[in-house]
Write a structure and sequence with these properties.
This is DUF4830 domain-containing protein. By secondary structure, the chain is an alpha+beta fold. It has 3 helices and 8 strands; from the N terminus they run H-H-E-E-H-E-E-E-E-E-E.
Length: 133
């Protein structure tokens, strides 16, 4: 009976420990969220597409020389909602772009969505996928 009690306590301890470790994990799978970005910069120009946050890089100095490498390929979708709040921020929600703004891929490979282009007031704007790092 004593062996059973010790084994039971050990198993119970291991289960509680595993639940504790799992509970401390990142609920969003390690992705950058709108909440993360807007906490650091409430004026950020971002949108969410396919579960990822994209940040406007059009006028970022180091990216200025890179943007000529990217051209619009295929229409992916359109912005559906504008919000300055991170609550309820979901795919096709933006902080700055108007509803109906078209989002384009920059690559024939539909799985490579690191840079997306949007059409805004007759200009192309470049948005980069934010990854945890």
């Amino acid at each position: 009976m004593v062996i059973f009690n010790k084994s039971f306590n050990l198993i119970l301890f291991v289960l509680i420990f595993l639940l504790f470790i799992t509970g401390c994990g990142v609920a969003d799978g390690g992705k950058v969220t709108a909440k993360d970005v807007l906490k650091r910069n409430p004026e950020a120009d971002i949108f969410q597409y396919n579960g990822f946050i994209y940040n406007n890089m059009t006028e970022v100095e180091w990216f200025e020389q890179e943007k000529d490498k990217y051209t619009k390929h295929s229409l992916l979708d359109e912005i559906e909602k504008q919000s300055s709040s991170s609550y309820g921020f979901k795919d096709l929600t933006t902080t700055k772009l108007p509803v109906g703004t078209k989002i384009y891929s920059t690559n024939e490979n539909e799985n490579d969505l690191g840079i997306l282009i949007v059409e805004y007031e007759g200009k192309d704007l470049y948005y980069m996928q934010l990854l945890e790092g």
